[in-house]
Amino acid sequence: MIGNSNKFNSMKCLNAIKIAILILLFQGFSTECEAQGKYEINGAVSGITNGQIYVFSGNKMDSVQVKDGKFQISGEIKEPVSSIAIAQNSDPRKMSQKSYLQLFVEARPMVLQLNYTDFSEGKLTGSKTQNDAVRYTSLIKRIQSKYKKEMERFESVRSKYNAAAAAKKSDDILEAIKLEDNEVRGYLEPMFNEIKDSTLKFIRENPQSYYSLYLFTMSFRDLNYKEAQSYFNSLNPIYKKGKLATDLLEEIEGMKKGIAGAAAGDFNTKDINGNPIKLEDFKGQYVLIDFWASWCVPCRKGNPHLLKLYAKYKPKGLEILGVSDDDRDEDKWKKAVEKDGIGVWRHVLRGLEYKEGTHERINVERDISEGYNISSLPTKILVGPDGIIIARYNGSEQDDKKMDEDLALIFDKK
After folding, report:
1. For 313-321, what is the mean pLDDT?
2. What is the pTM of this model?
3. CA–CA separation, 170 vs 167, rounded Å?
4. Who's near 191: CB < 8 A, 6+ residues apart?
C-alpha cells in the first residue's frame, strides 16, 4: 500500500517504481474479465545449461526446467495483458535487480532471451506492452545517468547504514547516518522531479498502452483529484474492466478524503498514555493533525518548528495531534516523542494492522491515515472547529510556509 513505511528510506524512495512493481506483481493481477487466452514463451538462457528458473504470476509460483539452455513457459491470462516475473530463485525476498525480470505477456507466441548472470538484461519479443516498458525504462536510465555521482553517494550512505545496522550499532549512530541519508537524498530531488514529469509525459503520450495504466498506478498521487481523474479517463477503456484499473479508480476516488472542504476522518482509539481519544474531543477547536514517524527524518526535523507554533498558538486555541506510522515499533515511537520534546501535545498510532505472518491488511477501518488519504510523510491536516478540513500541507518548504501563513491569519487577530 501507498503510505506503508520503510524505516530507512523515506517515502520518496530512490527505487520506488521498482518496489511498487514488485508489490503489485506479487499481490497479483487477477480480474473478473473473461479469459483472454494463453500466452506462450519460447526461451533460451546463456550461463546455465540444465537447471531451473522460476515464474511468478499473481500469487502463484512455478518452477520451469531448463534443458540444453532452452525452456518453455505458458499460461492462461485473464486480461489482454498480464504481468509475470522470471527469477533465479523461488524466494521473492532474496531477489536483487539482477536476479529477476518482469515481463508483460500477451496472448500470442513470444520469445525470451536470458542471461543467467543478469536477468534484468533479458529481452522479450512479441509483446507490444513489453516494448513500451523497454522504451520507458530507457528513458528513466537516461535521466539517472545525469545523476551518477549523486546516486553513487546515496548508495554509499545506504551501504553504510546497512553495515551499521548489521553490526547493531547504537541508535545514535544510526540516527546520524539517517541524517546523512536525508542530506544526500536532497541532492537527488531534481532527479525525482525529472522522473515524475517524464513518467506523466509518457502516460499522456501513450494513453492507449497498458503500460501507461500500469505506470499510473504508481504516479497518480503526484496529482490532485481532478488531474488524476482526467488522466484515468484518457486511458484505454479496453483495460478498465480489470482489477488493476478498478482498484486504481477506487484509490483515485479516495483522494477526495483529507482535502480542504471535506469532513475530517473520524477515529476512536487510545493515545500514547492509554487514554481514550476520538475526533469529537477536538470539537470547537482548531487542530493540526501531524502524520509522522520516528524513522522519518524530515518529520522530526520539523518538530522544533512545530513546538514554536504550539507555544505561540496554544493559548489562542490551537491543538496538535501526532499520528505516528510506528505501529510495528511502539518503543521507538515513544522514545522519539520523548527525545524531541513533543509530548506536550497528544499522540496516537495510526492503527495499521496486518494478518499475522502476512502482508494482508486487516481492520482497515481503524487506520486513521486511511480516513485522510495519507500517502507520504510528513503530511499535516488543519481541521477547523466545525470538523471540516481547512488545509492540507504535504511537507514541502512551500507548504510549510503556507501553513505558517494560515495559522497566523487565524490566530494573530485573536
Report:
1. 97
2. 0.82
3. 9
4. 143, 144, 146, 147, 150, 151
